[in-house]
Design a protein that fits this description.
The structure is a homotetramer of 282-residue chains. By secondary structure, chain A is mainly alpha-helical. Chain A has twelve helices and no strands. Chain A folds into two domains: 124 residues, Voltage-gated potassium channels. Chain C (Four Helix Bundle (Hemerythrin (Met), subunit A)); 104 residues, Orthogonal Bundle (Helix Hairpins). In chain A, helix 2 runs antiparallel to helix 7. The first copy, chain A, starts with a helix and ends in a 40-residue tail after the last helix. Chains A, B, C, D: This is Voltage-gated potassium channel.
């Protein structure tokens, strides 16, 4: 019993540092992780620029190893300090963490697997998690709620836009043909969406008068159509603002960043003693 | 009488399956139709890609026949099972259904009429009808109502934009001329709409300083002008939403009124399995 | 006296037909004018298309003369039937009417003055006047009111955008230079506005990494900035809708299309006996 | 004492003219400064156009000197007439004023430093200060307030867009590669932002089917995403308008353009006797 206790204490401490941000150590760890993720993404970016890679290849390679070693330690610590490691390993963030760590090791086994390093940019998503701590939390959650509330409407809308694009794209393919770049129906649909969304690259553009006429119609339709998602989101924002709840209101509870040591679920009540998800003691 | 009844019953059953969706068979038919329409459109798309058509021509051709035969049976069944067949045949969907069915047959009479297959993409519109069944109906009808209510205003607006485009297009034609691609007034108007709607292909772009100056003015006008349809639709959405009472107004944190059977604490998350207070199973 | 009366009666009748739309004849005249203006603009468009002009030059030329003769008669009738002809001749519409009529005559005196025909597109503005009659009037006036109410705010906004564009354009000129197409500061400012308004032709595009970085910042700024006019107009629309007056309300009077025979001012009350502008009997 | 008083009076008068706009002289000075700043920026623009510079080099050079001399006098007068000159010299506007004045002098010492003249465009920012006097002040401050109130939300939003762009840009780099112009991850991210913001230059555009497919997804995402800042700003504008205060309201005070002679802070109450910032007598 005596042997287990300190070990458990050590694991608990690691868990507190890595998974939570309520202690000073936990905050420092999050800041360090934040910086290292940014650096790791910048490294991948710089390596992709031929000129920079040619000149500073060695420096970049060393830094790459520093980041990889830190990520390896972090990954192992995450597995060790959690009660149900498999749940973490198979979770969304668990898989991303692994994929951000192994490419450099793999590159010694399979040549060219260094390209997988780019997957590391997905680790940026963890930044959203880290930022849960800062004051922007309220704003972000309001944005998220408004977007969630208008999700169904926007889905219906995008679906209608897609069907419209398929029909209009097919029409343009029949009218314009190969010369103007409308080489196939999929390409034609691609062009229609480029036009409807007012992106308008110009890599493909109608050259026949009929094609230009229909393109004009598509643009004017797009003009009215672009108003729809804006309208949906704006109204939703307005609603969020009207019924705004302040921390003093009934039914509003502060959820802290504490993570369950067993299942890593976050968002427990401040006065919670047990995890709401798995029932383990927090 | 005895003879007619079973026949009528058989017709009724077919009618129920094809035109309705309240019976299990009707639902399955709709799902099958949905899938076959998607496949038929994908087939037309794939055939238009030269590389794919060259390699898989035979497979695509067989699938094309499968779809065509199903569509033929469906078309005949629709005519047979309805009381007033002519009304269906001459209806919007009736004409589209026919046009989506016959191209392959026609291709044996008139060479090249296979191009008509592209018309099939119009059958996608039927998907909207099929989707009437699903839960998005509410959202879609709200969207439709808001757009209908703002139709008159948007028509006036588009009309004003068109007149403005003709005038500005003519001015640009006089200023820029052939060199920059403004080869005729219609082309010039096409360019003006491309600019006003902020699509901006760049296939035609002003090169003289005066032309660029006026283009700048057009863009700034377009900046203010693009706000108008958005404003119209947003206000309309807001109005639609005001009289709405729905469970869509999901709160901050989903705390329900469920009480823990062990400690009677309330305010659990909707997805809680265990009590946050005592750890008992809820 | 006997001589003057019928003349005055004749003049009055012509005035009623041309300037007003309450009599059947007046309505028919407006519709005819509407059609002829559209035709005259289409003629100018078609003439500008080289291929069409080469083939149908004679037909277009004859039609051009038909339109010009009608416009000449209309112009003379407008002068004759009004009490103060000079006021009409020097008014905005008077000048446009003249400029739309004379180019063909002038082309016999000055070679090449046929290009002035393009000015005719300005006559399209009269269509707005003609449309005063139709049911869209209410919608259009609401749009106009909302835009007028937000004019001051949008002016401030466009002014700020312009200053921002000058500063950012100058910065891009210093960074990018001639190679990428940023040949002068005005061109650079043109590019900045093309980018800020999200038009993005691509005729000029940054090629250095620093230029692309600043371009990215400009786009993200434009992202936030494009929201401003939309926000202004939307709020204004919302306000217009709230205080909407229906025909039954107090203080709402129906204004007819009757025009004062002396000063041609429109918009008199149904029960008006004297012109509100010059005091002449209606 | 007798000697100092008139000097102080002279300094005070200069201070009133340069820093304030309540006296007729002060107003005239502001108008003159406004015009000269516009001219100075136009001069820099015209010099950057090769054709114009070649022909009118001498005229532009003389005008350049006229502007520079006026700016020099103004700069010295600003320093002399203020009680704490160092505060002005090191202030934001103080540094810009200096940088707008010296390039021509520097060009005699360091060849090519004339390029610094472009910095002068920053002086346009002072126009915002001058315009404080005109009636647009109210509108501008309302715009500013709405933008300030939505700053936090827009920051969160732009941050999310940036992370999304890095991830999507990396994906496009892996898919498209060098051929289509996606030469490095930073370039790829640049392209993603160009697409997400619907600018769409077309200097880089996907050519593989997979790339075009993902580009389509990015555009549709951008479609929904562009609605967010608009929604935020619109709701904020709506709020500003609701609680609008009129000059008669309590708690609304008129702030004049008087500037503190000691610290140059503006925006004092009409009945203020001491500067609210440094406590000096006004």
């Amino acid at each position: 019993m005596k042997e287990r206790k300190p070990e458990k204490g050590w694991k608990n401490k690691v868990h507190e540092i890595i998974y939570e941000a309520d202690t000073p150590m936990g905050k420092w760890f999050d800041i360090l992780l934040f910086i290292l993720i940014i650096i790791s993404v910048l490294l991948v970016m710089l390596e992709s620029v031929k000129g920079i890679d040619a000149e500073y290849h060695k420096t970049l390679f060393i830094l790459e190893w520093v980041v990889t070693i830190f990520f390896t330690i972090e990954y192992i610590a995450r597995i060790v300090s959690i009660k149900k490691p498999l749940k973490y390993v198979l979770s969304f963030y668990g898989i991303i963490d692994l994929m951000a760590t192994i490419p450099l090791y793999l590159s010694y086994i399979f040549a060219g697997s260094q390209a997988l390093l780019a997957i590391r940019s997905l680790r940026l998503l963890r930044i959203f998690r880290i930022l849960k701590l800062v004051r922007f939390l309220g704003e972000a959650s309001q944005l998220k709620k408004a977007l969630k509330a208008s999700r169904a409407k926007i889905t219906v809308f995008l679906f209608a836009v897609l069907i419209l694009s398929v029909i209009l794209g097919t029409v343009m393919y029949l009218i314009e043909g190969d010369e103007a770049g409308f080489t196939s129906i999929p390409t034609s649909i691609y062009w229609t969406i480029v036009t409807l969304t007012t992106v308008g690259y110009g890599d493909i553009a109608p050259i026949t008068p009929e094609g230009q006429f229909i393109a004009t119609l598509i643009m004017l339709v797009g003009y009215g159509v672009i108003a729809v998602p804006t309208g949906i989101v704006t109204v939703e924002f307005g609603r969020q603002g009207q019924g705004k709840k302040s921390p003093g209101d009934k039914g509003y509870v502060h959820l802290n960043t504490q993570a369950c040591p067993a299942c890593a679920k976050e968002g427990h009540r401040d006065d919670a003693i047990y995890c709401y998800n798995c029932g383990s003691k927090l």
